[in-house]
TrEMBL record:
Residue ranges of every copy of the Ionotropic glutamate receptor L-glutamate and glycine-binding domain listed in the record: 191-253
Residue ranges of every copy of the Ionotropic glutamate receptor C-terminal domain listed in the record: 181-415
PANTHER family: IONOTROPIC GLUTAMATE RECEPTOR
Organism: Accipiter nisus (Eurasian sparrowhawk)
Family: Belongs to the glutamate-gated ion channel (TC 1.A.10.1) family.
Localisation: Cell membrane; Postsynaptic cell membrane
Main location: membrane
Keywords carried by this UniProt record: Cell membrane, Glycoprotein, Ion channel, Ion transport, Ligand-gated ion channel, Membrane, Postsynaptic cell membrane, Receptor, Synapse, Transmembrane, Transmembrane helix, Transport
Protein name per Swiss-Prot or TrEMBL: Glutamate receptor
């Protein structure tokens, strides 16, 4: 940020977390105090040229460039007037559209490019590519001393001619913790902290992502550590009397020097203990048991109820019987040599074939039979269309059945009970939001009613592993 000053740098270093690298533009200050406010024949106000003046310290870089730009334009106009090459502006107007453009624009631009000025930003001039070859930048960085305090130092400087002057190589942190034995408290949470070896009579050995980080720090800084699990196996939450339990409680009561696990940084915890820079971001997820895929041989019958299938079968038999009776009372005229007869079996087969859109083999030519079959075909078209639509909807609903995509979906339903780990960050967040009468989002109050069922003992667990087993059962 070019606009950052020394006060802003110190404030940024004090408030920020982690290593900082700051790049800002600098301007050369004349060593001769009496000449600081003079730039050739131009005299600058002392409130602008004195680096100790509060007004000059609050000046932004853009203001400095605006001042030098006006000074550069004034010099260019003055030079054009001295050379008697000034183009009059008397004929220019912004009202008439047919006024001729000013003829001195291009020559004025060339005069500005060839000129230069020594102002508040130093030497302001233009190179062939239009840039200023006299800009200077300094690079600042935070460092850590032996007293573990933070400071800011100049790492190097840069200009367009010589490039980078300095080194940006990070200095190794001082190994000033050799011989120190730290007591580390943890909470078992896969894959961050896990027990790798548990031999009777020997200290437990641990492994996991957090353990690898702790081991790397111990090797880098030279300290040793003793690790143990929090007695109540909890991360830590405030109690009614103001004390803390779990891992945070061990740190608050100074029974441990360091706590390491899958610990969430919350404002309440930051009020009582110090956290390092976070090394992992996560969002709240919902663990659901995977639906078992069962093969149903009669899934094709699911769109219609059993009673509806019985009615359809009865209708096929009834219409087949009616067709047979109509042809028996008024036999159709068959072609010579035809072997097809209008028996009850053939009538039933013809009605069923037309229902499944496969046609029939018996020619029925009487008017009554054709009227009957026309009504039957219309009925079959409606039933088949309804069956196809219901089958597609049934397969879609089956595919997304019991799917919960977000916390909003979880809070809206009550068929699936849910909970979380007691005294965890998620538990405290839902509890505070759900018990707040001024909370606008009703999702938290709905979730808290489910989580707090039977005072939290029904759906919640003490450890995440127990929650996984509870979902699988």
């Amino acid at each position: 940020n070019e606009e950052i000053n020394d006060v802003d740098v110190q404030e940024l270093v004090r408030r920020s977390i982690g290593r900082l690298t700051i790049i800002r533009q600098t301007f050369p200050v004349p060593q001769n105090i009496s000449q600081r406010c003079f730039r050739g024949n131009h005299r600058i106000s002392s409130s602008l040229c004195d680096p100790k003046d509060p007004f000059s310290q609050s000046m932004e870089i853009s203001n400095l460039y605006i001042y030098d730009t006006v000074l550069l334009l004034a010099n260019a106009f003055h030079k054009k007037l001295e050379d008697r090459k000034w183009h009059s502006m008397a004929s220019l107007t912004c009202i008439r559209k047919n006024s001729k453009p000013w003829q001195g624009g291009r020559s004025m631009l060339e005069t500005i490019k060839k000129g230069g000025v020594n102002g508040l930003t130093g030497e302001l001039e233009f190179a062939e590519n239009g840039g200023n070859p006299n800009v200077h930048f300094e690079i600042l960085g935070t460092n850590y001393g032996e007293d573990l305090g933070r400071g800011i130092r100049k790492l190097g400087c840069w200009n367009p001619i010589t490039g980078l002057n300095g080194s940006l190589t990070d200095r190794k942190l001082e190994n000033n913790m050799r011989g120190v034995v730290l007591r580390v408290v943890t909470v078992l949470e896969e894959p961050f902290v896990m027990v790798s070896e548990n031999v009777l009579g020997k200290p437990k050995k641990y492994q996991g992502f957090s353990i690898d980080v702790l081991e790397a720090l111990a090797t880098y800084l030279g300290f040793k550590y003793e690790i143990y699990v929090a007695p109540d196996h909890k991360y830590g939450s405030p109690q009614d009397d103001g004390s803390w339990n779990g891992l945070i409680g061990e740190l608050v009561f100074k029974r441990a020097d360091i706590g390491i696990s899958a610990l969430t940084i919350t404002p309440d915890r930051e009020n009582v203990v110090d956290f390092t820079t976070r090394y992992m971001d996560y969002s709240v997820g919902v663990l659901l048991r995977k639906a078992e895929k069962t093969v149903d041989m009669f899934a094709c019958l699911a769109p219609f109820d059993l009673s509806l299938w019985a009615c359809i079968a009865g209708t096929v038999l009834l219409v087949g019987l009616l067709v047979y009776l109509l042809n028996w009372l008024n036999p159709p005229r068959l072609q010579m040599g035809s072997m097809t007869s209008t028996t009850l079996y053939n009538s039933m087969w013809f009605v069923y074939g037309s229902f499944v859109q496969q046609g029939g083999e018996v020619p029925y030519t009487t008017l009554a039979t054709r009227l009957m079959m026309g009504a039957w075909w219309l009925f079959a078209l409606i039933v088949i269309s309804s069956y196809t639509a219901n089958l597609a909807a049934f397969l879609t609903i089956t595919r997304i059945e019991n799917s919960i995509q977000s916390l909003q979906d979880l809070s809206r339903q009550t068929d699936i009970p849910y909970g979380t780990v007691l005294d965890s960050a998620v538990y405290e967040h839902v509890r505070v939001k759900g018990m707040n009468p001024f909370e606008r989002d009703s999702m938290y109050s709905q979730m808290w009613r489910m989580i707090n069922r039977s005072n939290g003992s029904e759906n919640n667990v003490l450890e995440s592993t127990a929650g996984i087993q509870k979902v699988l059962v």
